[in-house]
Amino acid sequence: MEMFKYAATCLFGLERLVGEEIDALGYKRLETIDGRVYFEGDITAIARCNIWLRCAERVFIVAGEYTATTFTELFDGTKAIPWEKFIGEKDAFPNSGHSIKSQLASIPDCQSIVKKAMVERLKSVYGIDWFEENETKVKIEFFILNDKATVMIDTSGEPLFKRGYREKAAEAPLRETLAAALVKLSRPRENVITWDPFCGSGTIAIEAALIMTNTAPGIRRRFSSEHFRWIPKKVWKDARDEAANAITPDTTFKAWASDIDPDCVKLAKENAKRAGMENYIKIFQKDALTIFDNGERTTIVCNPPYGERLGSIREARELYKKLGKTLSGLVPPWQMYLLTSEEEFERLYGKRANKARKLYNGMIKCYLYQYFKDMGDKKPFDKDKKTFNNKNRGERK
Length: 397
Prior knowledge:
Elements: E1 4-9, H1 15-24, E2 28-33, E3 36-41, H2 44-52, E4 58-67, H3 71-79, E5 95-100, H4 107-126, E6 140-145, E7 148-154, H5 176-185, E8 193-196, H6 203-212, H7 233-246, E9 255-259, H8 262-275, E10 281-285, E11 298-302, H9 313-327, E12 335-340, H10 345-349, E13 355-361, E14 364-371, E15 381-382, E16 387-388
Helix pairs in contact: 2-7, 3-4, 5-6, 6-8
């Protein structure tokens, strides 16, 4: 069976998780760079990766790679790709792209050259001078890094974070792919409640339930490559059958989702039902500052409001101070995973984290502050240096 090179793109900081998901599907990782993981697989990878990858943004077929320091090299490299394998004579083939640390910096010019090269190649194959482009859309994306051009075919269409269950969202919603990553990093277990006390649209709790029932995130949506003529329909049928048979509905896992806003509670319930996860999630109205030990092992996983996302920075900082007084005494046996862009979070919260992991919520740099063990009686904050002592502490990644 023919093998293809693929690229799974992701938010910065999620590359390891995406790589592990690719490994679990049985495909071979080739290379990892910021924001993308390259791997090798047969044609089944197109369907299986789109349906199963929880933390990736898109899945691309790598059609060609070559050095491009001039527009001539970009044209020749693109024209050499056998586009007729992927594009019919009436198909649409728009393109877009990025250029980083490369001599070819003008994106509009690069787009024009890539399009012209593809047209010239397909003209010679199909023997026509005009392309109607009114049938299947095959989206092309180029990525030029350090003068190396990678030209790819988008197999996803809508980005993978659009699972289909969130028709409406609360203000400043957390991307589903990042929510899934937060859940994975928190190591969910059947005998431990996963609780998001700032649930908004319910995304974290829904993603937790999808993971713990082994429900593929893309099982309820469609992808652009389902319309590609060269991909047998059986590839998609087999992948969907596999995903359906893999679901484990008998899990005893429980997720809680709460919010102070009744409209968010209502929205989270609607989204959970749409995702088919309502039986695994308890959704209710509650002020996060009134949380207390419920007698059950619990992991808090949340994305509390921060200044760049909701309200003012001053309001967010006041919330963190109050949140620290409410939650910090619960660790252990509870665990806390809190995502925020506030770099002074630990000082405001009043307790240093066991680990802080750098992630991105879109283009906003954030840290996932992780609390899972007692740091002892040492003062967590050095008032003279106005910083935390990071000795014997997990490094920021």
